[in-house]
Amino acid sequence: MSDVPVEVSNFFLAMQAGRTSYDAIAACFAEDAVYEEPFTGTARTHKGRDAVMKAMALGWEMPMVDTRIRIDSAATADGEIHIEWTCFSPSLPGGKGHGLNRFSMEDGLIVSLITTLRDGDRG
Fold this sequence. Notes:
Shape: globular
Radius of gyration: 13 Å
Largest sheet: 6 strands, mixed
Number of helices: 3
Number of domains: 1
Order of helices and strands: HHEEHEEEE
Structural class: alpha+beta
Mean pLDDT: 89
Low-confidence stretches: none
Strand content: 35-45%
Helix content: 10-25%
CATH class: Alpha Beta
Distance between the termini: 24 Å
């Protein structure tokens, strides 16, 4: 497994804390960041840090209790950092979900984050 950049590690740590880490999560993203996510059942794109954080906040409306995210693998391909992960929470069907995050970074900030789910998971 490749080393996970500290900025990406900080993102996952903040994600596990949820709403209380709003500022820490926002600080991970560039002002003009783009976030693509599938969590409503349809892929959606959010442009700009404010839009990204509104999308993140939607997930906190139905909080996942006892959330833990495990990084399963990390690799760099075509200038992106690819992180395969497993999220554990009793709030998820079957207690866990799997996905892939593709990060593009610039000056230590996320400029693009594309999340896809594995095995039919919906987050």
